[in-house]
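For the sake of clarity, the format in which proteins appear in this thesis is described at this point. The fold follows as a row of integers, each naming the local backbone shape at the matching residue. One such record is shown here in full, so that the layout can be seen directly:
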Amino acid sequence: MSTPTARATWVDCARTLAMFCIVWLHADAAPAGLGRAVGGAIALFFLLAGYFLPQGAGRVLMRTGRLALAWLLWSLLSLGLMAAAAPDFEFSWQRSIGWGVAAYNTPLWFLKTLVVYQLVAAGLLALRLLPRFTWVVVPVLMLCSYTCAPAQYAAVRFDYFWIFLLGFALRSVPPERIGSWMGHHLPALAAAALVCLCQPYVLARCAQWAGLPWRHCSLPVGALAWALLMLLGGVVAGRYLPRVAEGLAFCGRWMLFIYAAHSFVLAPLYGGYNPHFLWNVWVPVVVIPLLAVAGWWLNRRFPRTMALLLARKRLT
């Protein structure tokens, strides 16, 4: 089984659409309910991380080492900028590396969690439990996420782990084939995603009618439905809006840089300069292309540094 490596335009477009939701939410003044779409954006990132994960345990450990180094560098950068901007702030090493809930740079929790997921995946690969039993583990973990609250052991949320493994299970199918199949079934997939978004409310009503306890949880299928809608958006852009897709894909190629750096750009908004204009929908429209161009420029000037920050062996 080979690891998918080729960049697919529609996948990078979907990454940018997911990042749009995240930056919009972090910009404040966003519409109520956007947090559910952001849960789908996070699910999409974990899904793609699993899909592009190497198969061998040794290769996974090498990639995890690069990701851990990127996490460390972004933590130090966040801490340094915080110290420069607010010398009297209360230092906390947990917040400086994203170990706690409220990190100095919010996206650090994702990098930390992805490092843990990849370490667990490397162990399962070494024990030969993956990929042999992947399709057994995925539904079991999905059902567990319905019956228990999101786990915070060691400050790591394991309720996205089944989505990460789902991406790993799908990796035998090339991205071109997936994109082509989704393109031929756009209406049916969009309808299925919308139905799935309603499932927590339907199940809650059924449990109430039957007098059974129920934890209102939209993560297992609801977040995956949002991720599917973002993937469908990438397919639509790639098929019918080639010029738009080109811009979205350019931003998607610098997604880790945008994800880890956008909090620095949004800091003035947190400081009280937020104009709250048009729900701040203009913020992701400005911030994402700005950081994409900044990543492209820094890569041209400092390719080795950018390779470290992006957890890549080499940049192309």
Observations:
- The radius of gyration is 20 Å.
- The chain has 14 helices and no strands.
